[in-house]
Design a protein that fits this description.
The chain is of the alpha+beta class. Helix content is about 30%, strand content about 30%. Strands 12, 13, 16, 17, 20 and 21 form a 6-stranded antiparallel beta sheet that branches. Helix 5 crosses helix 6 and helix 7 runs antiparallel to helix 8. The structure holds adenosine monophosphate and glycine. Adenosine monophosphate binds next to strand 8 and strand 15.
Length: about 425
C-alpha cells in the first residue's frame, strides 16, 4: 500500500514533517498546500490557503489523496476534519491526521482545556474564567493573586494571547484591552491563572484515541535575544532531548498527564486521532500543563523529526486508522539542536525579499525553510523566521557545535540568530 499524502501548511514545522514523510517507502504522490520552496522540493505545491476547505476538498478528490496531514491548528479548530467527513465526494476511508472540532477545543479554547483538566485531575495552574460582563469580578480575583499575573485570551490568538505582567495595573490594562477587542472574538472570555515558576518543556504524542506513541520531548527558545531576553517570537531554536526529562520525570508526565488526557478524551466520546502537544512547566520536578496544542510545535518539530528512527508515515496512517497497536516509534540516541535564522528587525518590523545564499554550504546540517519564497528562480526571504538549521550530534554539545560552526555560511541581508541555543541545557546540573 502506498499513500498519496496531502500536507497542509507552509512553515518550518511542515518542512520537517515533509522531510520525514518523504523518507517513507509507503509514500505515493506527495502534495503540499500551499507548502514553501523547501517543502515543494519534496512535494508538489498547490497554491492556496490551508484555511480554504473547498480547495482542500477538491484537491483530495482530484489528486486521489489517501491521507491528509494538518500542520497548523486553525483548520483543525475550524472543523476541517468534520467538513471533509460531511462531503459526499470525499472517500469515507480518507485518513486524516488531526482531531475533529471537538478534540481541537483543547487548543481552541483555554477555558475548555482548563475545565477538561479539572474534570480529569490533570495538574495545571489554578484559574478562573471571566466574560466581559464579569470584569469587576476578574479584577477582584486578580487582586487576591500574587504577581506575576497571567492573563489569557480564551481563543486562538496566533500565540500572542497570553500576557504576563509583574504589575497589577499592567495586568488590569491587559484585561481591559482583551475585553476591548485586542484579539477579537478570541477575547470574549479571559482566563486568569496562577503563575507557575519553573522550566518549560514540550512533550508530544501521536494517538489513535486509545493508544499513543511518545515522540522525543523538546524545548523551545521563545525570546529574541540571548539569555532569554527581549520580546517573544514564534521560536528562535529548539533542542531534543531535554536533560531533565529523565525516566522519573517522564514517568510522572505519562502517569499524571498523558494517560489521563487520552483516557479523558476517550471517556468523553472524543475520537481523537492525531498529535497532542503538551506544553508543560517543570516545577521542582513536578510537571504541570500550561497548554495543550492539537498539532506539533514549531520550532520543536525541526529537532524532533530528525530524532525519529522509524517510519513516521506508517505511524500516521495507523493513528488515523484508529489502531496504533502494531506500531513502535524508534528514537535515535543522537541529540538535535535547531537554530532559527531570522530577518533583522523581527519580531517587530522587518524587510522581505532578500536573496538567500549559501544553504548548500551547510551540509551535513539539515535546513528547513520557514519564511522563504522563490522569486525568478532565486530563494528569497518572505517572513520573519526564515530558516531552521538543525544538526544531529552524539550529544547536545556536539550538535550545538555543529550548528554554530556552520550557520554563518548561510546569508541574507540582516540575517540574525541567537548564539546561545542549547547552552542552558548543556549546563543543566547533572547533564553529561
Ligand atoms: P501559551 O500561549 O499558553 O503557551 O502561553 C505562552 C507562554 O506564556 C508559555 O509558553 C509560558 O512561557 C507562559 N505561561 C503561560 N501560562 C503560564 C503560567 N501559568 N505560569 C507561567 N508562565 C506561563
Ligand atoms: N513552540 C510552541 C508552539 O509551537 O506553540
Amino acid at each position: 500500500m502506498k499513500y498519496n499524502v496531502l500536507l497542509l501548511g507552509s512553515g518550518g514545522r511542515e518542512h520537517a514533517l515533509a522531510w520525514k514523510i518523504s523518507q517513507s517507502p509507503l509514500l505515493g504522490n506527495f502534495y503540499a498546500l500551499p507548502g514553501n520552496p523547501g517543502i515543494n522540493s519534496l512535494a508538489e505545491g498547490i497554491d492556496g490557503s490551508s484555511g480554504d476547505f473547498e480547495l482542500i476538498r477538491r484537491t483530495v478528490v482530484e489528486k486521489h489523496i489517501d491521507m491528509v496531514v494538518c500542520g497548523p491548528e486553525d483548520p483543525l479548530v475550524n472543523g476541517l476534519k468534520d467538513f471533509l467527513e460531511s462531503c459526499q465526494d470525499v472517500p469515507a476511508d480518507l485518513l486524516f491526521v488531526g482531531p475533529g472540532k471537538d478534540g481541537a477545543m483543547l487548543e481552541g479554547s483555554k477555558d475548555f482545556a482548563k475545565e477538561f483538566m479539572a474534570r480529569h485531575g490533570i495538574p495545571t495552574a489554578a484559574y478562573r474564567t471571566f466574560t466581559s460582563e464579569q470584569k469587576d469580578d476578574a479584577l477582584e480575583f486578580m487582586r487576591g493573586l500574587r504577581p506575576p499575573y497571567v492573563v489569557k485570551a480564551d481563543g486562538l490568538a496566533a500565540g500572542k494571547g497570553v500576557i504576563i505582567s509583574s504589575s497589577f495595573d499592567e495586568a488590569a490594562g491587559a484585561l481591559e484591552s482583551i475585553f476591548g477587542g485586542r484579539f477579537g472574538a478570541a477575547g470574549a472570555k479571559v482566563v486568569i491563572e496562577e503563575y507557575l515558576d519553573g522550566v518549560e518543556v514540550s512533550y508530544f504524542v501521536l494517538t489513535d484515541g486509545h493508544r499513543w506513541l511518545m515522540l522525543p520531548e523538546a524545548k523551545d527558545y521563545k525570546r529574541i535575544w540571548d539569555g532569554d531576553k527581549g520580546p517573544n517570537t514564534g521560536g528562535m531554536g529548539s533542542v531534543s532531548p531535554v536533560p531533565f526529562c529523565d525516566a522519573a520525570f517522564t514517568d510522572k508526565v505519562v502517569q499524571r498527564i498523558i494517560e489521563p488526557t487520552v483516557r479523558g478524551l476517550e471517556s468523553e466520546g472524543v475520537d481523537y486521532r492525531g498529535f497532542i502537544f503538551f506544553g508543560l512547566m517543570n516545577c521542582s520536578g513536578d510537571p504541570y500543563v500550561i497548554e495543550y496544542n492539537v498539532r506539533m510545535g514549531d520550532p520543536e518539530t525541526e529537532s524532533v523529526m530528525p530524532r525519529i528512527g522509524s517510519d513516521l508515515l506508517s505511524h500516521l496512517a495507523a493513528a488515523a486508522r484508529g489502531d496504533l497497536s502494531g506500531e513502535k516509534l524508534a528514537v535515535l540516541h543522537q541529540a538535535a539542536v535547531t537554530c532559527i535564522v531570522v530577518s533583522g528587525g523581527y519580531p517587530e518590523k522587518y524587510g522581505k525579499g532578500y536573496p538567500i545564499s549559501g544553504i548548500d554550504n551547510l551540509v551535513p546540517l539539515t535546513v528547513f525553510n520557514a519564511g522563504t519564497a522563490l522569486k525568478d528562480g532565486q530563494l528569497v526571504t518572505s517572513g520573519g523566521r526564515v530558516l531552521a538549521v538543525t544538526a544531529l550530534g552524539g550529544s547536545l554539545t556536539d550538535a550545538r557545535e555543529s550548528v554554530y560552526s556552520r550557520i554563518d555560511r548561510v546569508s541574507f541581508e540582516g540575517a540574525f540568530h541567537r548564539s546561545d541555543i542549547a547552552l542552558d541545557m548543556i549546563n543543566w546540573p547533572g547533564h553529561k
